[in-house]
Amino acid sequence: MASSKFSAIFFLILYAVLLFLVFTMHNMAAMYLMAIGMFLEACEGVYCNFFHKE
Question: How many CB atoms lie within 10 A of CB 44?
């Protein structure tokens, strides 16, 4: 749910690193990174829906 160009690029890089970790069999680090990414996307969604005034 990228609400800006910065967050879109940030999550693209984050998930590219996640994909690299999965392919190199670093599954626990990939799981931690995936959990962090999902949490940050949820926080961005809450911020955009409740606190961001346009």
Answer: 18
The answer to whether 44 and 3 have CB atoms below 8 angstroms apart is: yes
Please say whether the beta carbons of 19 and 29 come within 8 A.
no
pTM confidence score: 0.79
Low-confidence ranges of the chain (pLDDT < 70): 1-3, 53-54
Tokens of 9: 């690029």
- Tokens standing for 44? 């961005």
Nearest Cα neighbor of 3 from 33, 37, 47 is 47
- Give the amino acid at 50: F
